[in-house]
Amino acid sequence: MSTRSMPFGVRIRGELACFTRPEMKVERFSYEIITPSAARGVIEAVLWKPAIAWRIDRIALLAPVVFTSFKRNEVNERISSSNAQAWMKGTKEFEPYHADDASNRAQRNTIALRKVDYAVTAHFLMTDKAGPEDNVKKFEEMFIRRLERGQIHYHPYLGCREFPAIIEPYDGSPQPIACGDYAEKDLGLMLYDMDYRSGPPFKPLFFRAMMKNGVVEVSQPEAGKEGP
């Protein structure tokens, strides 16, 4: 029995996006295109089940890369999960957290993308959490049905939750931009995804993103692949 699905073509677009480069420690600076991990997150908004794991195969650029700059208020600190759990259990006295406190707020610059549009090709693999009634065809039909009807588990976003994404079937139009800078370009090391297999701390995985004729073929790196 096959454990790999057929390839699916989806169109992902939106007004604003920011796929932050991890080497930028303070201010957000976006990659030029959507990362495989961000694309996976958008697709999982349509269908996510423990029995399947999505893999991104190809990312095609359907609109020119346009950067935009603006400032945003962000917090310097976050509530730790251990403190939150202690408060819930009553083992630690609750300490109010104020995100609007001037001492905890900082204005940072963001270099984001505007008017993004991508065609993403992806497939899924069956995982060891699949039950006896689970099979590839069942989830293929489920994904196609949900995608065509616009059904989602949560609203997908483009790097930041305040940048909503639109996801729909891709019918081949518009075509990828295959001229100018997009005919052949080295986009450098790009975040592929996080390696969750070994448990925390999770390790980032990177791959060399080479664009040819407006398309990046996504190669799946092994754990420990060098990063920035």
Description:
The chain is mainly beta and about 230 residues long. Strands 1, 2, 3, 4, 5, 8, 9, 10 and 11 form a 9-stranded mixed sheet that branches. A two-stranded antiparallel ribbon has the order 6-7. It is built from 3 helices and 11 strands. The relative contact order is 0.27. The chain has a single domain, classed as Alpha-Beta Plaits. A hairpin with a 7-residue loop joins strand 9 and strand 10. Helices cover about 15% and strands about 40% of the residues. The radius of gyration is 20 Å and the shape is globular.
- Discrete helix count: 3
Give a count of the beta strands, DSSP E runs of length 2 or more. Answer: 11
By CATH, the topology is Alpha-Beta Plaits
- Main β-sheet, in a few words? 9 strands, mixed
Mean pLDDT equals: 88
Order of helical and strand elements: EEHEEHEHEEEEEE
Low-pLDDT stretches: 223-228
Question: Helical residue percent?
Answer: 10-25%
Quick recap:
This protein is mainly β and 228 residues long. The chain is 15% helix and 39% strand. It has helices spanning 36-46, 81-89, 136-149, and strands at 8-17, 28-29, 52-61, 67-75, 105-126, 157-158, 160-164, 166-169, 184-195, 203-212, 215-217.
Supply database-style keywords.
mainly beta; Alpha-Beta Plaits; 15% helix; 3 helices; disordered C terminus; 228 residues; nine-stranded mixed beta sheet; two-stranded antiparallel sheet; 39% strand; globular
